[in-house]
Write a structure and sequence with these properties.
With 219 residues, the chain is mainly alpha-helical. 79% of the residues lie in helices and 0% in strands. The protein is globular.
Length: 219
């Protein structure tokens, strides 16, 4: 009788421990999801503020990809593209209508940033190459949008350079692509440097949770 009672007690204890582990795992998953949503919102805000500053000052760079690249790096390719879309919509309806038309270029950049960071192509020796791989496909898209939809005239300060080159005898598409390539690379390089600094400030536990993993310690 005593052994049967002890067995039932052990079974009860094991069931209690299992329940505690399940609750703990569920809590960690919930915390990870909250952190990911918060980071995505922060990235959208970074893009919006940067784009607004560049627009007001008519800078030749755009400053609208810092959050996009950060989201791709710490959350993943799909989230990088989603952040670019979200910030493009917000900027488009509040401050710069052109941002809506250039959303596809930003989404390409965000998705590529996620893959490039995961492949380890953004370390010190490959940083410039990795930045170029993030930049080029989005540049092709944005140059085509600028040339064919707006004839090289947009809200960006780089439009002046496009018009200058086209007046000097370069074709509009060629002028848009050359200017877009130079300004995009400078913009993405600056953004990638800032993202690397921000990521260096994150703990390993925070990075794990932002990627959807489960942390064993405090963030």
């Amino acid at each position: 009788m005593f052994s049967e009672g002890n067995r039932k007690k052990r079974v009860g204890d094991e069931q209690g421990k299992t329940g505690n582990r399940q609750r703990e795992t569920g809590g960690k998953k919930g915390k990870s999801g909250t952190m990911r949503l918060t980071m995505a919102a922060f990235c959208v805000t970074l893009n919006f503020v940067g784009a607004y500053i560049a627009l007001c000052l008519k800078l030749p760079v755009y400053l609208d990809s810092i959050g996009t690249i950060l989201a791709g790096a710490v959350l993943g390719p799909m989230q990088g593209a989603a952040v670019a879309m979200g910030s493009g919509l917000i900027s488009g309806v509040t401050s710069d209508i052109y941002a809506i038309y250039f959303m596809p270029a930003g989404m390409i950049t965000g998705a590529l940033a996620g893959f490039i960071f995961r492949l380890g192509l953004m370390d010190k020796k490959k940083f410039l190459l990795g930045t170029a791989l993030i930049t080029l496909p989005g540049t092709a898209a944005s140059a085509s949008i600028s040339a064919f939809l707006f004839h090289g005239v947009t809200s960006s300060g780089s439009s002046i350079l496009v018009q200058l080159l086209s007046r000097l005898g370069f074709g509009l598409v060629a002028s848009a692509f050359v200017v877009q390539l130079v300004t995009d690379y400078a913009d993405r390089l600056l953004s990638a440097v800032l993202v690397s600094v921000l990521m260096a400030c994150m703990t390993a536990e925070m990075k794990l949770m932002l990627k959807g993993g489960q942390s064993r310690g405090a963030v």
